[in-house]
Amino acid sequence: DPDSGDNGRLRYSLVNQHTNEFDIDENSGQVFAVSVAGKAGTFPLEVQAADQGTRQLTARTTVEVTVDSSSSNNIVMVVLDQQINVVERNIADVKRVLAAKLAWSVFIIDVYANELGREARSSTDVTYIKILAFDEANQEVPAADVKRKLREQKSDIELELEKVFSASVTAAVQEPPADSPAPEPVATIVLGVLLACTLVAFLVYVVLTVKRKRKAKRRAQIAGGTDNPCATDDKGTLQSSGKPEH
């Protein structure tokens, strides 16, 4: 924007449905991934630039981001002792620090709090960040090299991140866990097991109830003299159920 002052100061934003997978730095306009693990394809992002003048003017353009899912072997996990909502607000600066200290291009593949509860935004003080690094030739850097350099630069990275978060930060390298089942299949499996257990318990209850009723009926028949020729009457005296034929 050639204007000066607030009329030339731009703020960028995403205005379409892919804001869960991607985000944008409102000052620089840099688009970055937030959570694209397990996803592949081309995502059209509609980006808006707006000046900050009294009569705000805007312009929009479409940015197509292609996600290639073939790079999982070189994904490296960085663990920060910060809440996920805090990390997400500063994810652009986290990416900048990592790229500067590694001297490679860094792409953030996924950001989450834990494997089992990714919906929790502030329940834990640990955030996992999956990254990919690319060298000057735009080739993936092997995971082993990325981990080695992260460990070598650990102190400098933590020092720079402390400036970003305005708090003490610990950054560690961790092996990415094996892909866990999606929440829906897990819930289905658990529900199936519970239903099976309930069915078995119901069948056992029915069988035991039938057996108890049969025993009670047999005892009633015996008490009533059906099977006992020497049963007692209501007053407790012996009575015969009938003369035997022989």
Automatic annotation (TrEMBL):
InterPro entries: Cadherin, Cadherin-like_dom, Cadherin-like_sf. Residues 1-77 form the Cadherin domain. One of its GO terms (biological process) is cell migration. Keywords: Calcium, Membrane, Repeat, Transmembrane, Transmembrane helix. Signal peptide: none annotated. GO terms for molecular function: beta-catenin binding; cadherin binding; calcium ion binding. One of its GO terms (cellular component) is catenin complex. Residues 218-246 are annotated as: Disordered. It is found in: Membrane. Pfam families: Cadherin (PF00028). SMART domains: CA (SM00112). Residues 237-246 have a biased composition (Polar residues). The chain crosses the membrane at residues 186-208. This is Cadherin domain-containing protein.
